[in-house]
Specification:
CATH topology: Ubiquitin-like (UB roll)
Distance between the termini: 40 Å
Number of domains: 1
Number of helices: 3
Oligomer: single chain
Shape: globular
Mean pLDDT: 94
Order of helices and strands: EHEHEEHE
Strand order of the largest sheet: 2-1-5-3-4
CATH architecture: Roll
CATH class: Alpha Beta
């Protein structure tokens, strides 16, 4: 099972508390995790990535194992610790301002 941590506003939208646990078939990548997340929680479609282009939204970042994975290719394998469920895949809302 893959563990996913969502920001509070997306947890509220998905009506979940704490981590989300997902079964991912095949290789564990950003794309496969987000596909599984959107399948289980269709109300999240379009909130993390654009529905047409599948590109990450500008103010959303992805982290795992203390690394920023936001600019990694969507089909690159996630760290083994994430694939084994030892570490969560974090979806984080970025901040901007001046």
């Amino acid at each position: 099972m893959i563990r996913v941590v969502l920001p509070s506003h997306l947890r509220t939208l998905a009506r979940v508390d704490g981590e989300v646990k997902l079964a991912v078939d095949g290789q564990v990548t950003q794309r496969s995790v987000l596909d599984a997340l959107e399948t289980c929680y269709p109300m999240l479609r379009g909130t993390i990535r654009d529905q047409v282009t599948q590109q990450r939204r500008a103010f959303v970042r992805f982290f795992a194992c203390a690394e920023d994975l936001s600019h990694e290719p969507p089909d690159a394998p996630l760290p083994d610790a994430v694939a084994m469920g030892a570490e969560p895949f974090l979806v984080v809302g970025a901040m901007a301002g001046g």
